[in-house]
Design brief:
The complex is a heterodimer of chains A (311) and B (426). Chain A is of the alpha/beta class. Helix content of chain A is 34%, strand content 14%. Chain B has 426 residues and is an alpha/beta fold. Classes of the chains: A alpha/beta (311), B alpha/beta (426).
Amino acid sequence: MPITLKNILGTRDLAREDISTILDTANAFKEISTRPIKKVPTLRGRTVINLFFEPSTRTRTSFEIAGKRLSADVINITGSSSSTVKGENLIDTARNLEAMNPDIIVIRHACAGAAELISHFTKSSIINAGDGAHEHPTQSLLDLLTIQEHKGSLEGLRVVIVGDIAHSRVVRSNIFAMKTMGMDVRLVGPPTMIPFEIERLGVEVSHNLAEAIRDADVIMMLRIQTERQNRFLLPSLREYSNLFCLTSEKLERAPEDILIIHPGPVNRGVEIALDVMQDKRSLILDQVTNGVAIRMALMYLLLGGSDNGLN
Amino acid sequence: MVLIKNGRVIDPANGIDEQRDLLIEKGKIKAVEPTGKIKCEAKTIDAGGHIVAPGFIDMHVHFREPGFEYKETIESGCRSAAAGGFTTVAIMPNTNPVNDTRSVTELILAQAKACGTVRVHPIGAISQGLAGERLSEMSDLKDAGAIAFSDDGRPVMNSELMRRAFEYSRMFGLPLIQHSEVLDLTEGGCMNEGAVATELGLKGMPVEAEDIMVYRDIALLKKTGGRLHVAHISSGNAVELVRQAKAQGLPVTCEVAPHHFTLTDEAVRGYDSNTKMSPPLRTQNDIERIKEGLEDDTIDIIATDHAPHDVVDKQVEYQHACFGIVGLETALPLTLRLVQENRLTLPRAIEKITSTPASIFNLDAGTLSVGKFADVVIFNPKEEYTVDVSRLHSRSKNSPFDGWKVKGKVTHTLVGGKVIYSAAKN
């Protein structure tokens, strides 16, 4: 079944069927990345522009590899090399890129709403690769794919998300997508990092990590973004770690088959202990692998693909 | 002589609401008499059965001159005012240079006089350069024509300065207009703090930032005397604080902008920067409490906070966009919604944009009494039309109401008996 969306601005816009289609297509695409010749001609002659205004290694590389494995021409523009440093307006940048007729523009930007803003001025499909503290839909989709692979189905699973909820776009995308897929979401962090009225999105809030994970199926640890912190939120990273770092000790009371995921990059020892990162239940690298498949699936589906893409 | 006939005259200050003809001579009201009673040779304006009221007064506009003429000039602002039915406006001092000295006040008045249309009253700065450090020369500003003092756009954060400003301004009897916002709580914020901001990932501006400053100013005023006018109230809690202060007999007045009783923070979905203003759009609960405040006169007046911004300041990422929207040309239809919802009668709605602002700011305007300046608006409260920002007279088009179907259109605006706007010619 094809998806009807022109853009992927956020998971809030995705229906359950859309998410299932994306996950199924990504599953089918995974195999391509294991071949000796990791390339199919599906998007030959198509152009994908990666427009990244914030530093990113994993996400930008993942989009680039995804496009290339589908034979699209992929162009990378990063914040420092783009004309925004010369003071060009974001909309003008988007219009200029549009004038070169790309098929997809992937954008990452520090401002919430940036992807939606440029979507009003372009005919190309826009994929949001992270806009401020708003959404990061491809991250959420790869999280779902990873969870589904290990748990079989998503319905009814209880996910605990831990860390700086207020400043995280990964959290918002996951709340929308997980609620849509029938999952339970519980947020854990200090009250200073839990945004006002987040309960209205249908989630639970807790401030005690060990308690919160006792009946969980999945724990998602978020990176503490020290570079963005308002100085009043935390007394110190040390105290944060004492309370919210996922350690073997805190994991003891959690179910045996709990899955541990993290969107990366990890601050080792701050939000997750080194031995936990290396625990067999930790799927951090599976997530990265699945990220390529998800992005291949989205590019393929946005450009009109309607089946699993391999026929 | 000009005769306005065939209209329903509503003049709240004189308790008039009936079919009357209105005769103007030498720029002043000569007679207001039952239909057909006035018989004389005069140029006639047929009001077509519509409302004839005192010209509207807006105590809160930003005309951007001097300094930001690409957004609005005094001339373009006055044209926008006239098209909205306003015959008197008070201009906030956050220009460049700031209106904190006699020479800037005089420049504004000279530019306004050159336009020769709407009556313009400058508001002087409370602090020099709006910097919140030293009092401006209030005596000199008043002599030059300032009718109130405000650091609008920036709140007076320093409580000691605010206390002294209340005390000092007592010598002149002019009110201080406060933009009530504790900046510590709103730093980096761009919309109301709440479920919508949380969902959109935008930094919120908590309602308490407004409440705390309104409370602080009332507390200071109690001790110092002077007069406080709370600008663009947006918080239901702040309305309650003003209500309590009034009950204690304190000299506190306040205003609300039409967008704050029309839109909630839900409008920010989609990141249209024309929904970004300060104070921000709040919640349905705040709107309800604002309407109650309008009903019981806790909220004395309606003022637009007309804040023109060019596309270069607005067509950018939401968090980088300037705060504010234009309001002069949508104020009437939005205010009339309160009448359609039976929250205010038509005379009471008109009162809040005519005689009440005139009395708070001691302006010789806002009524159709015989002998007063013939500042008159004629409007059809039933005419429906679609707001089209490209047709606004303001130099800026930053309105969230583009495309709205609204009711209530100005047909004529007169200042001193002279027609300065006529819908037929526009």
